[in-house]
Design a protein that fits this description.
about 450 residues; alpha+beta; Helix Hairpins; Heat Shock Protein 90; 3 domains; five-stranded mixed beta sheet; four-stranded antiparallel beta sheet; 9 helices; 11 strands; rod-shaped
Length: about 450
């Protein structure tokens, strides 16, 4: 800033001085023209160095009379001007305008001047009645030509240096303050990150920094993101613990039954009958079903579940699976109502096996949980490029507070976790993953028959 301001000031000041010097040259030419008009020639000025000096200093706006040291120039011939540089006071580091002027006749012969300096002159004509009567010659020299101008530039330069030093000092102080504040905040983030890496997911950074608008700045946003990360990790850890606890609980019940029955058989409490063997086999089947559900769910979570998609008719597939479940529904006297609002056969790009798994899980849940003598209504519609399938059954229903949790793993509405009544609570979670893999959506809501409605929306690739 100092260098730029110094350069800008000198450039602007130089242009200002040049324009003012041009004005002074114009004034001097006018004075010489008036002198010529009064005398009609230069004869009275020839050899009269005092008159010439007086004319020069009359054009100055600072001094109307020549300084005393000019008298030293009288030792030279009368028409020699300006004096030699060696005769100027050594303290002067610039050449005044008056000491750089020469006067030439109309034929460019010297009236006041130096023969050796003619080649360096910048000539300015002097006019009288439209005719050139002489020339004012100007030798090159420094632009600044007055003590107060030099003093002004020196003072401004000193001021610029002082300002530059002050700004450097203030900048250093502000940098130290900012670095200290940022260092404290970064150290705090570092310590909290170490705590997070060690498994302490309850740490939270205080959001203290805001911008001029009262909004979180970059550090505040970083603190918010850190807190969201810690919260997500905390929820993940809690979900993992619940997952392990639920799996162990689900496996403990059939294993306890198997262990008890085997001990009873070994000790001879119960005889080894086909009924006892069937009971053991049913518990093994339940454990196998649970492990298979866990395996399928883990594959869908990792994105490793294999999907072989092709263009299929999802409605014909649903109808075939429904026919397979008809005996199970007839055994509980559950009526099935099929409402197909489609006016043409649709083709959807999907995995037939995974859709079959989706339909089977939903129909199994409905058959297991719907009361005897109930009903199931399957409604199929099309909304633009989406296929809508609703599974609506009758009582019992699900409380509205529990609807959103139906698709969580191991979540079941009944209070007991008896596997004889339902599954392990993984079926709907697996259904949600299958629908998501087909870029669709699934949710639950109360049905019109005081039961539960599962609504599925799948995109159609026409």
């Amino acid at each position: 800033m100092y260098i730029f301001m110094r350069w800008s000031l000198e450039r602007g000041f130089k242009e200002f001085i040049e324009s003012r010097q041009q004005e002074r040259v114009t004034f001097l030419i006018n004075d010489l023209a008036e002198f010529y008009a009064a005398n009609q020639n230069w004869d009275k000025l020839l050899g009269n160095k005092q008159k010439w000096i007086d004319l020069l200093w009359q054009s100055s706006s600072y001094h109307k009379h020549p300084p005393d040291w000019i008298n030293k120039s009288y030792k030279e011939p009368n028409n020699v001007w300006p004096p030699t540089l060696s005769e100027l006071p050594t303290r002067r580091h610039y050449i005044p305008l008056q000491m750089r002027t020469m006067l030439l006749n109309v034929d460019k012969s010297i009236i006041f001047g130096r023969q050796e300096a003619l080649s360096k002159l910048a000539l300015h004509p002097i006019h009288y009645q439209g005719n050139i009567v002489g020339y004012l010659g100007l030798l090159p020299g420094k632009i600044i030509n007055a003590n107060n101008e030099v003093h002004f530039m020196e003072q401004v330069s000193k001021s610029f240096i002082s300002i530059a030093l002050l700004m450097i000092t203030l900048s250093a102080m502000m940098s130290l303050m900012l670095s200290y504040k940022l260092g404290l905040y970064i150290n705090r983030i570092t310590s909290f990150t170490h705590a997070l890496a060690l498994g302490n997911y309850n740490v939270r950074l205080p959001i203290e920094t805001t911008n001029a608008l009262g909004q979180n700045d970059e550090l505040g946003q970083l603190a918010r993101d850190f807190n969201e990360l810690a919260s997500a990790l905390d929820q993940t850890e809690q979900a993992r613990r619940r997952w392990v606890a639920d799996i162990s609980h689900e496996l403990r019940t059939p294993l306890a039954i198997l262990s008890g029955e085997i001990e009873a058989l070994r000790d001879g409490i119960h005889p080894l009958t086909p009924e006892a063997i069937n009971s053991l086999y049913s518990e093994v089947i339940r454990i196998n079903r649970l492990t298979d559900d866990l395996y399928q769910l883990s594959l869908s979570d990792q994105g490793s579940m294999t999907y072989h998609k092709a263009f299929i008719d999802p409605i014909a597939l649903l109808k075939d699976i429904l026919n397979q479940f008809s005996p199970k529904y007839e055994a509980k006297h559950i009526s099935i109502q099929w409402i197909n609002n489609l006016h043409h056969v649709i083709q959807m790009y999907a995995d037939q096996d995974r859709l079959s798994q989706l339909y089977c899980n939903l129909l199994t849940n409905s058959a297991n949980y719907t009361d005897t003598d109930g009903q199931l209504v399957i409604t199929i519609t099309q909304d633009n490029d989406s296929l809508l399938i609703d599974f609506s059954d009758s009582t019992p229903g699900v409380h509205e507070n529990e609807l959103a949790r139906l698709f969580e793993r191991f979540y079941r509405v009944e209070s007991s976790r008896n596997l004889n009544h339902g599954g392990a609570g993984l079926g709907l979670a697996l259904c949600a993953n299958i629908v998501k893999a087909h870029h669709g959506s699934i949710h639950a809501e109360p049905s019109a028959f005081n039961g539960l409605t599962i609504k599925i929306e799948l995109p159609i690739n026409l």
